[in-house]
Amino acid sequence: MEIKMALLTPHDLMNINKQLQEADSAVRRVTGLDIKGVCKALYGTSQGSEKVGIVPVTSGNGIIGNFSASLHAITQYFGFDSFVTDMPDVSGYYEAVRNGAGIILMADDHTFLAHNLKNGKIANNQPCTGIIYAEIASRHLKANSKDVLVVGLGKVGFPGAAHFVHKGFRVYGYDADRTLLKRTVSNLGIIPFDLENSKKFSIIFEATPCADTLPEAVLSENCVLSTPGIPCAISEEFRKKYDVQLVMEPLGIGTASMLYSVL
Ligand code: NAI
Ligand code: PYL
Ligand code: MG
């Protein structure tokens, strides 16, 4: 059976600059650093004069409206010199390299990659997204314990959970797929969490493609919810009631993580 990524829609990417600015403010409130600062601290890299070539890809479900334009806006937002190729696919790749791209960004329905042609480093969006959202949550300045809740342990959630473990957090994990949960508990040594449990968390990371996955009982006043998962894991009502510090953005934070990881 073919397993695909949950694909973005043009609607998810509307007003990407505004979404990025709001996410940057949220990250600053939570961590004291902006997104770029968290990326630099995480990977120990900073940008030079790398030119980023963005190649539209037509295979599978094809071009997503706003996708390449959003990557263009995102790369410029973080201070990269970037361009979108006129041609897609192999011709676009050729065009990007011929026009001086040092880093290629491109995505089909399964893989979104950043490839630094100068140093050979390559990054995949899913682990890079999991790691940066976990890193942001782990830097919550007002966290009251080392306990974190991770909901969704798939291609984005698993690397996020692993990152928390690596940083010495006590990780409680839940996934609707019982087999995956069991395997992750055994691989990472995390604590299986029952969502019926009424334990409250000040740090929550969510990476599922579903809405309203978090019950009210896990939310504490002013907790951080760092979530790449679309749609949102909590209702607007819960967000207001618990003054939840929400870090959620559809493409830019993960892309920044990819770019800084290949510098
Ligand atoms: P995946 O399919 O590999 O993993 C999702 C996991 O969530 C699965 O293990 C599934 O069993 C679990 N799940 C589904 N419903 C659940 C529920 N109600 N409660 C608990 N667990 C549940 O998907 P992947 O690649 O990890 O992506 C997760 C989400 O992150 C998707 O919405 C995807 O579009 C989004 N995403 C966002 C990015 C961003 O930059 N904001 C970047 C990459 C992915
Ligand atoms: C990278 C995102 C995050 C969530 N889902 C992933 C997704 O939508 N992937 C598909 C990207 C396809 C892009 C298309 C284009 O316009 O070039 N091939
Ligand atoms: Mg993102």
Secondary structure layout plus pairing:
Layout: H1 16-31, H2 35-43, E1 51-55, H3 67-77, E2 81-84, H4 89-98, E3 103-107, E4 112-116, E5 122-124, H5 125-138, E6 147-151, H6 157-166, E7 170-174, H7 178-188, E8 191-192, E9 201-206, E10 219-226, H8 236-241, E11 245-247, H9 252-262
Helix pairs in contact: 2-9, 5-6, 5-9
The structure holds 1,4-dihydronicotinamide adenine dinucleotide, pyrrolysine (PYL) and magnesium ion (MG).
How would you portray this structure in words?
This protein has 263 residues and is an alpha/beta fold. It has helices at residues 16-31, 35-43, 67-77, 89-98, 125-138, 157-166, 178-188, 236-241, 252-262, and strands at residues 51-55, 81-84, 103-107, 112-116, 122-124, 147-151, 170-174, 191-192, 201-206, 219-226, 245-247. A 6-stranded parallel sheet has the order 8-7-6-9-10-11. Strand 6, helix 6 and strand 7 (170-174) form a beta-alpha-beta unit. The relative contact order is 0.17. The mean pLDDT is 97. The protein binds 1,4-dihydronicotinamide adenine dinucleotide, pyrrolysine (PYL) and magnesium ion (MG). Pyrrolysine (PYL) binds at residues 5-8, 56-57, 63-64, 67-68, 107-109, 112, 125. Pyrrolysine binds at residues 5-8, 56-57, 63-64, 67-68, 107-109, 112, 125.
